[in-house]
Amino acid sequence: xxxxxxxxxxxxxxxxxxxxxxxxxxxxxxxxxxxxxxxxxxxxxxxxxxxxxxxxxxxxxxxxxxxxxxxxxxxxxxxxxxxxxxxxxxxxxxxxxxxxxxxxxxxxxxxxxxxxxxxxxxxxxxxxxxxxxxxxxxxxxxxxxxxxxxxxxxxxxxxxxxxxxxxxxxxxxxxxxxxxxxxxxxxxxxxxxxxxxxxxxxxxxxxxxxxxxxxxxxxxxxxxxxxxxxxxxxxxxxxxxxxxxxxxxxxxxxxxxxxxxxxxxxxxxxxxxxxxxxxxxxxxxxxxxxxxxxxxxxxxxxxxxxxxxxxxxxxxxxxxxxxxxxxxxxxxxxxxxxxxxxxxxxxxxxx
Length: 351
What we know:
Blueprint: H1 7-20, H2 25-37, H3 41-54, H4 59-70, H5 79-96, H6 105-117, H7 121-134, H8 139-151, H9 155-168, H10 173-185, H11 189-202, H12 207-219, H13 221-240, H14 246-260, H15 265-268, H16 283-297, H17 303-310, H18 316-321, H19 323-338, H20 342-350
Helix pairs in contact: 1-2, 1-3, 2-3, 3-4, 3-5, 4-5, 5-7, 6-7, 7-8, 7-9, 8-9, 9-10, 9-11, 10-11, 11-12, 11-13, 12-13, 13-16, 14-16, 16-19, 17-19, 17-20
């Protein structure tokens, strides 16, 4: 592999060679050469990211990302593009060096400078989020997101800023109210979906978001099942981390049951996934995963109500039309049977 065919070709060749021969020292040497000699900020960023991907902790790669960020003002090819590169470099640096903090004042200062000079609200949102992650509680990051939420007329930007603010300050009322407003007032289906997903991330049992999610699930099966399942996984992670209050757990359990039971025997067989060939997971694929999450969080006192709510899905019409649903419900009922005494199970089943 030679370094005389152009930096772009050199980088591509290094990636191919590493795939063919992982550990090849020539790849590391080529990437280091690019970092030290390429005039393109984009290629230096790409080379540094790839170097850290194949050799995490490589100091040359880390130093290169630091320099891309700290020397932001020296770039002149396309200042807005270079600002984006600086943001991406910071994000990648944070991935490989999670200890970034107050000792990295040069990085923080560069991000603050970027915020003060860029006019692109999308980039401002991203940079404010990264700044808030590197320096938790940073007032400039928070104020930037709050200003964008309050002033932008672009609903998608507003949605993104509110989501980031809720990520930096969990439970932030301003962010929750704005996402709720977007859900109830927007004319854009995409914004409504995005706002719902983001609201569920920062206010997991929000009744408006849950109700809207159920509507989305029933009317847009082929597009938005991934949102349903992402929400389910968030529920499980919060439960395992002991971050769901006991009084909220009933709402969580009801939510999971809603995700399993909305379709009727008539339209169950018409699920759009039954006739599609796709590489994306379908609602049927998610059913057993949802069942697994539900059995993870169920308490003994919850089991009778779950049996009552789901036992009908073991009837012949559902077994005929949706083996996926039947298997998921059977898995849940079996879990209940194994964790209740015979008398309590009998009462719940025949109630």
